[in-house]
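PLP-dependent aminotransferase family protein: structure tokens wanted.
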Amino acid sequence: MQDEHLPIWLPRLAMHGGPRFLQIADALQAAVADGSLSPGDRLPPQRHLAAQLGVDLTTITRAYDEARRRNLLEGRGARGTYVAAPKVELTAILDLSMNTPPPPDGVDFDDMLKQGLSQVLMRADNGPLMTYHLGGGSDADRKAGARWLEPMFGQFDAGQLLVCPGAQAAIAALILALTEPGDVILAEPTTYPGLRAAATQFGRHIVAVEADKHGMVPGMLEQACHQHKPGLVYLNPTLQNPTAATMPERRRKELAGIAKRCNLRIVEDDPYWLLADAPPPPIATFAPEQVVYISTLSKCLTPGLRVAFVVIRNPHERERFLVALRSFALMAAPLTAALATQWIVDGSADRLMEGVRTEARLRHRMARHILAGRYSGVGDGLHAWLELPAYWNTSQFARAAGSEGIAVTPAEAFATGSTTVNAVRISLGSIQDRGRLQAGLQRLSDLLARRPEPFSAAVV
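Answer:
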């Protein structure tokens, strides 16, 4: 380890070598690679290095930030900045179980985050960013939400929209606001697990309604309404989770018509609409008074934006929803909501979403090629439904995939009825590196091609 009292590393800068902060970061990376700098070596203080190189302090700060982003440096408080030890991958698991957006193609997400937060803090009064917002979001946040939903609904009154901390919180609040303990909630036989989790927690009962390749069967819905007198109907009609099916417009109109005739409340959970290729209009456009519409930014931008927009036309139901939400979540974090608003207003959200969409389609193309014959993905969204050969069952396959270092989600996780499909869901966005995803998909393909081995539990 070098003498910490006299750090001596100095990079050479070229007159026409590009931005100086990148030259410094590149030189640092090269010095680590060739052994000139070793893990634990202390870097020159930023002011010292700026003086030695004849550049301003901001250039050195940006260079050190870039080096930290590359995992080359680590800060140790007042002791200074040091060359970081190489990162060790402690887990070999390839996670195809978590439905998150893939890293956006052609978008510098780190820079977008820094710029967005900088704009928020520069333009906003910090007071409102650190206090309570009890009205379902600020006026600016609701207007940004209405702008975000224009592709679905055109222009509409932002006063009918509420901002809340994610779609799961919205679903839970709607169950509390619009149903009573013991009520029935109708859903398709395979559906989003968060619905079942919330309904069970609140003492409501999920009843499965038969679905075909186009979604919930209208005649079966009408029959279930007369039989069960449901409090809500839950639908996820676009790139449905987990099957990736999109309900056609005709079916949406039929279900909207039943909702009107039977005075049903439909919760339309629609996180993937903006990722789909030419999706039909939301069900809410055909029965606006009967349908509550949820759109979250977590599935099309990034999970860290715990911001969802909820459209409720009925003012009395909007107030009931807010009362229910405050009982467990109170509000969306104002700083996060302000960042979402900034990104929507300045166009960053559209660029980020387009990058996510482009990368998702590349990954679907890869999966379709590798998993030909078993793959039900349609080229959009974040996930696909992988049908298993008869010699595999879902629990066997999920366990075998786990032994191969791959996490998948079996059909049982999505079941609302007593029967399940012999399939697993694979999520294509959670693995950052496309090459690692390709390797994982190839391992799944190899696993599908061979029959399961007898299972024997280890005894220790």
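The longest helix spans residues 348-370. The chain has 16 helices and 16 strands.

Cheers.
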